[in-house]
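User: Reviewer 2 asked us to show a designed sequence for the structure in our supplementary figure. I'm pasting the structure tokens here. Could you produce the per-position amino acids so we can include them in the response letter?
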């Protein structure tokens, strides 16, 4: 869509000025690059990628940084990532300065941990620099948000019209659009219009607040549609969605009926049960996986699980090599793929290799700090 060319603005991050509007600084795995005869990422156990005897089916797997390095984000990636991490909210609250004493705010937002602040800046850049990035102390997160009705109508809404959401979040988006269109006509400035907005708001996200009920005791919620996604047409949507919702797990467990320990790898995506059909579409897309339910929570959470080693090395790793994970989760993917390569080489059967895998696993996911 070409949302580019915004002016840069500065703010402090870790006591350093950071430009939000322009490209962000590329980051790398600390201590893993060598600059002899070009740049190569070093596998700490098996040597350089160029000298592997057995390779995961990709020549480029270990050569990317987790930032796009100023390269424009794919619009389908943006939609997939929003399906995972974004929200469309309508706030109705008291404001004595308003003629009706009630204020309405429409907001598109994405909130991420500070580890992914560079990705948040890239998303802002994608949308032409509109909106703001602020720190939410209560949630310990950085928030990218757009609340200008004009910018919502001219930039945000057209994007998701052209590149539709695939999860049930699309139903929230459709209701959100109705309210923004009403606001553009000034409906939020009179009580009759506010009643219309309240009726739509009642079907959006988690429903209505006590404040809304106190001001509009008679609510007639509009119908909320059920999203029927039948096809995943663009792989970049998957890379965006997994960048937000995916998990690359590695660990050590005792083998069945033996005291020996073994290494396992697992790829997971967890969603509310209402998106079960979408999870089944992903299984069909990858040609691998199964659905698991959390028995502790009845009829609410489903998880796509791919744990077969052949599927991981022949399908999952090559896919995300071609359509990369972005953000700090890409470092987890690299470590995950590193462990897979160690296993392909049979090094996990040696004491040195086994201990190396333990060290790699310890720094993945929740064990990773923002620097590596």
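Assistant: Here is a per-position design you can include in the supplement:
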């Amino acid at each position: 869509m070409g949302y580019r060319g915004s002016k840069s603005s500065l703010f402090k991050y870790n006591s350093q000025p950071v430009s939000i509007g322009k490209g962000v600084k590329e980051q790398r795995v600390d201590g893993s690059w060598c600059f002899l005869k070009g740049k190569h990422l070093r596998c700490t156990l098996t040597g350089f990628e160029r000298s592997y005897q057995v390779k995961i089916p990709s020549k480029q797997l270990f050569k990317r940084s987790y930032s796009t390095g100023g390269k424009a984000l794919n619009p389908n990636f943006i939609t997939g990532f929003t399906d995972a991490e974004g929200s469309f909210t309508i706030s109705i609250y008291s404001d004595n300065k308003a003629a009706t004493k009630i204020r309405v705010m429409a907001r598109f937002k994405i909130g991420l941990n500070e580890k992914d602040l560079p990705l948040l800046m890239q998303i802002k850049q994608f949308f032409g620099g509109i909106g703001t990035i602020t720190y939410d102390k209560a949630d310990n997160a950085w928030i990218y948000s757009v609340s200008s009705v004009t910018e919502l109508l001219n930039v945000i809404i057209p994007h998701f019209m052209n590149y539709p959401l695939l999860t049930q979040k699309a139903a929230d988006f459709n209701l959100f659009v109705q309210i923004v269109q009403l606001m553009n006509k000034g409906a939020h400035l009179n009580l009759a219009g506010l009643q219309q907005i309240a009726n739509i708001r009642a079907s959006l996200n988690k429903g209505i607040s006590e404040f809304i009920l106190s001001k509009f005791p008679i609510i007639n919620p509009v119908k909320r549609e059920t999203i029927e996604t039948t096809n995943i047409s663009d792989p970049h949507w998957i890379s965006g969605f997994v960048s937000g919702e995916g998990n690359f797990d590695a660990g050590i467990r005792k083998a069945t009926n033996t005291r020996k320990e073994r290494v396992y790898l697992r790829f997971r995506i967890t969603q509310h049960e209402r998106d079960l059909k979408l999870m089944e579409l992903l299984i069909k897309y990858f040609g691998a996986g199964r659905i698991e339910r959390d028995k502790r929570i009845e009829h609410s959470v489903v998880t796509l699980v791919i744990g077969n080693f052949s599927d991981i090395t022949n399908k999952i790793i090559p896919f995300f090599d071609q359509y990369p994970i972005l953000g700090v989760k890409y470092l987890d993917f690299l470590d995950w793929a590193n462990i897979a390569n160690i296993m392909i080489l049979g090094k996990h059967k040696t004491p040195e290799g086994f201990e190396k895998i333990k060290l790699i696993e310890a720094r993945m996911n929740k064990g990773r700090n923002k620097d590596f």
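For the response letter, you might also mention the following. The longest helix spans residues 169-184. The mean pLDDT is 82.
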